[in-house]
Specification:
Elements (H helix, E strand, L loop, with lengths): L1 H9 L8 H6 L21 H48 L5 H38 L1 H22 L3 H5 L15 H21 L1 H6 L2 H9 L8 H14 L3 H8 L4 H8 L6 H18 L18 H12 L6 H14 L1 H7 L1 H11 L5 H13 L1 H4 L13 H4 L9 H15 L2 H7 L1 H12 L9 H11 L8 H6 L19 H7 L6 H15 L2 H9 L7 H20 L2 H8 L2 H7 L5 H24 L15 H21 L3 H10 L13 H9 L5 H9 L3 H9 L16 H15 L2 H10 L2 H10 L16 H6 L4 H10 L2 H9 L2 H8 L6 H10 L7 H10 L4 H17 L5 H9 L6 H14 L3 H10 L11 H8 L2 H9 L2 H34 L3 H9 L6 H5 L3 H10 L1 H12 L6 H18 L5 H7 L2 H10 L3 H14 L3 H9 L2 E5 L5 E7 L2 H5 L21 H12 L6 H13 L10 H13 L4 H10 L6 H13 L33 H5 L15 H4 L8
Antiparallel strand pairs: 1-2
Helix pairs in contact: 1-15, 3-4, 5-7, 5-9, 7-10, 9-10, 10-13, 12-14, 14-15, 14-16, 14-66, 15-16, 15-17, 15-18, 17-18, 18-21, 18-22, 21-24, 21-53, 22-61, 24-29, 27-29, 28-29, 29-30, 29-32, 31-32, 36-39, 38-42, 40-44, 42-43, 45-47, 46-47, 47-48, 47-49, 48-50, 51-52, 53-54, 53-58, 57-58, 58-61, ...
Protein name: REM-1 domain-containing protein
Family: Belongs to the RICTOR family.
InterPro entries: ARM-type_fold, HR1_rpt_sf, Pianissimo_fam, Pianissimo_N, Rictor_IV, RICTOR_M, RICTOR_V
């Protein structure tokens, strides 16, 4: 519930008042008993305290002036340093710079650096002394703050007395001023004092524990009077909130008559928003600090929230009001309370309100409430508060009630569809909605049968999301009714090598947990009649529509998924489509034949074209087949290229000379006039002949003119803009270098006759900080690399590094030396990254040294980039290379944790290959320093005998198996449930492509026990430890646990451990020996906790990974899905679906009867009280309000509306029954009583004296508010009698029958007859 967590932390940091502060402050005892007297602390008089404070202030000012002076000196020295560095930089590029001046500048630079170090150390020592002094004086500051807080409390208490008594206030506190003359001045003084006290409590946390909460609340209650301003009341609530620190303070708070003030404040209108806001914050603080999260049973929702029923009913009324500004935060708070104390929410009508909000909106809070109720229905102890079949099903009303709503209802329908997707993607929601023979799911599916409902497309899209069907772009062509065979050709997916992300997504998951859940969804939906409902959409028109074709598409995709995920016997039942075939074979009605034939034709067309238009759907990877059509095209292209090269090498002299002239290279230096195609053909063909190369170099000087074009200082190639059209020149330069290196004359030309490599070296020297020839606009400047083809020189050097002759040339011209120098500069990380990216590392030599130097660079971003590039080299390598793996293992010891994580990620991916895994294990890396980051990689090692032996000898196995047995098993439950939540629910909450991609990247976490059982030695160690026997005993003992959350979590952790062990051939005998599989099957069918059932369902799927496990499950009527070759795929579903999804119904507990009051003896009071009760009935509320208004005008009733006892009866009535916020405000405004501290004490007195004994027979009739009621919906009842009926004289009866026997009262539904 992220939004709830955000709101909790957003409301004034409520959590900062709790136990965390007490721990930080070293608080161990209870609240200190602080005397309210003005006796000096530790014998220190106020005058001594003041002198000490003034002395401390003067010392602080002196130190502050010293720090300012040092800071100004430091700024001057830094400027001198920057100026000297700039001059030295200029000296490197200016040959006329004098050596004497250089020496002086360097000396000045050294002096500035030393001065900076000296000033910095002085500032540090001065700050340390100040900090040490502050810590010494901390106790004095606490005493001062405590005295000030006590003075503020005394001031607030004195402001509540009469003006005469205020004069005699104790003069020892300097904060007390002269007595205010009128109410406004008193109000302002209260606000100022309370704000000052709040400031003290905020700045000094220890004071909160020292100040007695009862005295703070009593002083604040004086500012909550109706005579005070709303700002004063808001400050009083704020003061009380900041005084709360622990559950004990909440207990002291409950002893004060604060509830009456809060009930009245929550009933005020929007003009008092500042006051209501502080009340809401106070309630949230009470919930945060004082709540007991779990009851004695340990089950969820069995805790207690220290709020009275009256306050929470007032809070619910505020959340129920549509136009209230605090509506959303109140709803979120109620959702939090629901998870803590569901019984309180049931008594006060909060569950009914949250269900209504879930159905009606606001839409932005509906996902939060859906998650809340999913948590409620998961446990049997909390879902009993919901009426099965009616309450939670209100979440579906946006879809089921869509008929006749019009297009404006579409947005709400889409939001409701997202909520349904969220609910059905969880075990709690799916199992709950399967109750009553799938009644709720059948209701959703039956909306597809309504012909006039145009918004059915939203429902179809919802099923696409539920089943995780991601249709490709050509599906729109299918929906539009165009022929797929004439639309487009197959995608040439095999021409390009797969990217790392696509390669990762194409790897089949070893544990298909999400697929198993979707298989169950298909079984449930088809059993509920999804295919029949889609068939009914076909029957609406013989010509078809986009909607009916989309229904056909959904049916085709469901059939595809059933064929892929379900066992053959169950998939065959779905594939039969009896109703569609009945329509196609109905010769009696021609339109039925047309509809059925069109549907079958569309399904056949879809199946035929899926493989052709989406070939990757039926392929495990993108490996090109030898007999594919694309392969024939590629073979033909390669043959043409080989023939062209062969013909070019056999070219005669005349043709060769003509080709040289045709390129225009000999005629002009303008490259735009050159014939690029002819030039490329020459380089790739004839010039590969050593004879032609010699002729082009010595005779025609063709190579000289061409190479001069690529010289950096010629500014021809290097100045060309970096656009797509010019990319071909970079490729041409690389090809030219390859061709030159292919012959002896070409290598000699590059080595001795051409300046290309010399100019490259000089260009790098322009950036070399160790060289004195730096220029202002070097060739390899950052701007030129980004905007021109200068970056192409890096690709050309990469071409040289791939050839042994090229490496020799680079070594001779010291290009690698330039690389080494550049790797030490921070300002040109773009150039360093380009060098790393383009160098070829196939030859052992300087290239690998450059890479290793980048991997150990002093800059984190360079190391991160180099590690990522090294990981890509490992990934793209066809064979295991020891040198790349050794470098990657070295990165595991990098000081930056992000580099270590990246290295672990690439190693974990590379170790999918057994060859690489074996090679890595032989290197015996130490991963203990990585902590949790290295655990997945170590568990990879455990899956091989060599790796397990290495880890066992290192002591890792013994250490980890004990940690997993006691702790990590439970942590694994969190990991796997987070994985399932991301994989299943991401589309329901976030439809973005990034969210979908992040969900697809999530992998099933590995389990320690599952990896252990993959080796014989691991099984032996596990047998010696005896852990599995304890697991089996726990499952048998607590398999049907439904109350204790800790036991349920431990049960899940053990089930996952057993499942992962059973997924291996070595671990399955453990399960057979203990005969635990029947127990797991019983838990899957009978556990009252839905999430435990889901865990068992996934565990049974894990057991079906091996052929032996699938055979065992088949004996217990659980059928496993097999591949075409007959091997199990790790998916298993029950043969008898009804037995698995059956959930017994329950009886909802009745609400406990509210406390009853002694009935009034006066007939007038009885009439008023009867009218107040009638206000709760929306049918006769108007009549009751007119009666109350008429009674208030009569003189004999005036005493009633100013009576505190009658005011208490009214407050009790609205605190025990449901009244809307305007009605509550109306009731409170009826009484001419100003609520102040004296009245509040009288109300507390009446709360004790007016309570009826438990065995009295004269108790007032009770009202039971049903959870099913929807706010604003009228209750059924007859109209009340005439007004004159209320005026008939009635004799008071003192009998067993209650006095409330007036005619209007006898006709109101909800009052029980006694």
């Amino acid at each position: 519930m992220p939004a709830i967590a955000q709101s909790t932390s957003a409301v004034d940091h409520l959590g900062a008042n709790g136990n965390t502060q007490r721990h930080e402050l070293g608080y161990t005892g209870g609240r200190s008993a602080v005397s309210m007297s003005t006796t000096p602390v530790n014998g220190m008089s106020p005058s001594d305290s003041m002198s000490n404070e003034s002395r401390a202030d003067s010392e602080d000012r002196v130190k502050a002036e010293q720090l300012d002076a040092l800071a100004s000196r430091l700024d001057v020295q830094k400027r001198i340093k920057e100026g000297a560095e700039s001059m030295l930089q200029f000296a490197l590029t200016d040959p006329n710079f004098k050596d004497e001046l250089r020496v002086k500048v360097e000396a000045e630079l050294d002096r500035a650096r030393k001065e900076i170090e000296t000033i910095t150390s002085q500032m540090h020592s001065l700050s340390t002394k100040t900090t040490r002094k502050n810590s010494v004086e901390e106790r004095d500051d606490f005493r001062t703050a405590l005295n000030n807080a006590i003075g503020c409390i005394k001031t607030l208490s004195s402001l509540g007395r009469s003006p005469a008594s205020q004069v005699s206030a104790s003069p020892s506190t300097s904060t007390i001023k002269a007595a205010p003359s009128n109410e406004d001045d008193v109000d302002a003084a209260r606000i100022e004092t309370m704000n000052r006290l709040v400031g003290i409590l905020q700045r000094n946390l220890r004071v909160r524990y020292a100040v007695p909460i009862s005295e703070v609340v009593q002083a604040a209650l004086l500012g909550l009077s109706d005579k005070c301003s709303k700002q004063c009341r808001a400050c009083a609530y704020r003061l009380i909130r900041h005084a709360l620190v622990d559950p004990e303070s909440i207990m002291r708070l409950q002893e004060q008559p604060l509830d009456w003030y809060m009930i009245k404040s929550l009933a005020r209108d929007s003009k008092h928003a500042v006051e209501k806001e502080q009340v809401v914050k106070l309630i949230r603080a009470i919930v945060e600090i004082g709540s007991t999260r779990r009851g004695p049973s340990g089950s969820s929702g069995s805790g207690s929230v220290p709020l009275s029923d009256g306050v929470l009913r007032a809070f619910v009324a505020t959340a129920e009001q549509p136009d209230d500004l605090l509506k959303l935060i109140c709803i979120e708070t109620l959702a939090e309370i629901l998870l803590i104390d569901i019984d309180l929410m049931s008594r006060t009508g909060g569950i009914r309100l949250l269900l209504h909000v879930l159905a009606e909106g606001p839409l932005e809070i509906a996902p939060i409430l859906a998650s809340t109720f999913l948590h409620v229905v998961d446990s049997p102890s909390t879902r009993v508060y919901l009426h099965p079949g009616t309450d939670f099903e209100i979440a579906l009303s946006g879809v089921t009630d869509a008929y006749g709503k019009g297009p404006e209802h579409d947005e709400r329908m889409r939001a409701c569809a997202r909520i349904i997707t969220l609910l059905l993607r969880t075990w709690s929601g799916l199992m709950y909605f399967c109750m009553g023979d799938l009644l709720a799911i059948r209701t959703i599916i039956d909306t597809l049968r309504i012909p006039s409902l145009d918004s059915r497309e939203i429902i179809i899209d919802m099923f696409f999301d539920l089943l995780d069907i991601k249709p490709p772009d050509w599906h729109q062509t299918f929906i539009d009714g165009r022929r797929l065979t004439m639309y487009r050709r197959p995608m040439p997916t095999t021409d390009l090598p797969p990217s790392p992300s696509s390669k990762k997504s194409q790897e089949p998951e070893s544990l298909k947990l999400t697929d198993q859940y979707i298989a169950l969804l298909i079984l449930v939906f088809t059993k509920a009649g999804l295919l029949d409902a889609l068939t009914s959409m076909f029957e609406e028109s013989t010509t078809g529509s986009n909607l009916s074709r989309k229904a056909t598409l959904l049916m085709a995709e469901v059939l595809q998924l059933a064929n892929k995920l379900l066992p053959l016997s169950q998939a065959a039942k779905i594939q039969s489509l009896p109703r569609v075939f009945d329509l196609a074979s109905d010769y009696g009605r021609g339109e039925h034949r047309i509809i059925g034939s069109l549907a079958l034709s569309a399904l056949d067309s879809f199946n035929r074209n899926v493989a052709r238009l989406h070939p990757t759907a039926n392929m495990k990877n993108n490996r090109p087949r030898a007999n594919s059509g694309e392969d024939a095209v590629r073979r033909g292209q390669r043959q043409v290229e080989q023939v062209k090269i062969k013909m070019g090498m056999q070219m005669d002299d005349r043709t060769f000379q003509a080709a040289l002239l045709e390129t225009q290279v000999m005629l002009t230096k303008d490259h735009t006039k050159w014939n690029f195609e002819t030039l490329q053909d020459l380089i790739e063909g004839p010039l590969l002949n050593p004879k032609r190369m010699e002729e082009a170099i010595k005779v025609s000087r063709f190579i000289r003119r061409l190479m001069s074009f690529f010289h950096p200082f010629s500014h021809r190639f290097s100045d060309m803009p970096r656009v797509k059209a010019n990319q071909r020149w970079v490729k041409l330069g690389s090809t030219l270098l390859t061709t030159l290196l292919a012959s002896t004359d070409g290598k000699r030309y590059l080595e001795s006759e051409d300046d290309f490599l010399k100019q490259i070296v000089k260009s790098f020297a322009q950036l070399d900080p160790y060289n004195g020839t730096m220029e202002s606009d070097p060739i390899f400047s950052k701007a030129r690399i980004q905007d021109t083809l200068t970056y192409g020189y890096l690709e050309m050097l990469g071409t040289l590094s791939a050839n042994e002759k090229g490496v020799e040339l680079m070594e001779k011209f010291k290009i690698f030396t330039a690389f080494y120098h550049l790797s030490d500069t921070r300002s040109r990380d773009d150039l360093i990254k380009g060098i790393i990216q383009h160098l070829d590392y196939s030859i052992d030599g300087h290239s690998r040294i450059v890479l290793s130097k980048a991997l150990t660079s002093c800059y984190v971003h360079i190391r991160t980039f180099a590690t990522a590039h090294l990981g890509s080299l490992v990934r793209e390598s066809a064979t295991a290379n020891a040198w790349t793996l050794r470098l990657l293992l070295t990165q595991l010891y990098d000081p930056a944790m992000e580099v270590c994580e990246l290295a672990v990620q690439f190693l974990q991916e590379a170790c999918e290959s057994m060859e690489i895994l074996r090679l890595v294990v032989e290197m015996q890396p130490t991963l203990d320093h990585l902590g949790d980051i290295g655990h997945p990689l170590l568990m990879k090692f455990m899956s091989t005998p060599v790796g397990f032996r290495y880890l066992y000898d290192a002591g890792y196995i013994d250490r980890e198996i004990d940690m997993w047995f006691h702790e990590r098993n439970v942590w694994y439950v969190v990991q796997i449930e987070v994985y399932l939540a991301k994989a299943l629910n991401v589309s329901a909450v976030d439809n973005s492509a990034d969210a979908a991609r992040s969900a697809s990247d999530v992998r099933v976490p590995r389990h320690f026990y599952g990896e252990m059982t993959k080796t014989e030695l691991g099984c032996q160690v596990l047998q010696e430890k005896g852990h599995f026997a304890e697991f089996a005993h726990f499952i048998r003992q607590h398999g049907l646990e439904s109350e204790d959350i800790d036991l349920i979590i431990k049960l899940k952790s053990i089930l996952w451990a057993v499942g992962n062990m059973g997924a291996t051939e070595g671990g399955l005998p453990f399960l057979e020996e203990e005969e635990i599989i029947p127990t797991i099957l019983e838990i899957a069918e009978k556990s009252p906790v839905f999430s435990v059932r889901g865990t068992c369902f996934f565990v049974l799927g894990l057991l079906s990974v091996t052929p032996q496990g699938a055979e065992i499950l088949d004996d217990y009527q659980w059928e496993s899905t097999l591949s075409p070759a007959g091997y199990p795929t790790g998916l298993s579903v029950p043969t008898d679906l009804e037995k698995f999804i059956f959930v017994p119904t329950w009886d909802t507990p009745t609400s406990s009867t509210a406390s009853q009051l002694i009935p009034p003896t006066s007939q007038n009071e009885m009439e008023v009280l009867t009218a107040l009760h009638n206000l709760a009935n929306t049918v006769i509320a108007n009549q009751a309000s007119r009666t109350l208004a008429r009674l208030k005008t009569r003189s004999e009733y005036k005493d009633i509306f100013s009576s505190p006892s009658m005011f208490y009866r009214a407050l009790h009535t609205i605190s025990t029954h449901r009244y809307r916020l305007p009605v509550r405000r109306y009731v409170l405004d009826l009484f001419e009583i100003d609520l102040d501290y004296e009245v509040a004490k009288q109300l507390s007195h009446y709360a004790e004296t007016l309570q009826a004994p438990d065995d009295t027979s004269t108790a007032a009739p009770s009202r039971v508010v049903s959870v099913l009621g929807i706010p604003g919906r009228a209750r059924h009842g007859s109209e009340s009698g005439e007004e004159d009926d209320l005026e008939e004289p009635q004799e008071p009866t003192i009998a067993a029958e209650p006095v409330m026997n007036l005619r209007p009262m006898s006709r109101i539904i909800g009052f029980q007859e006694k």
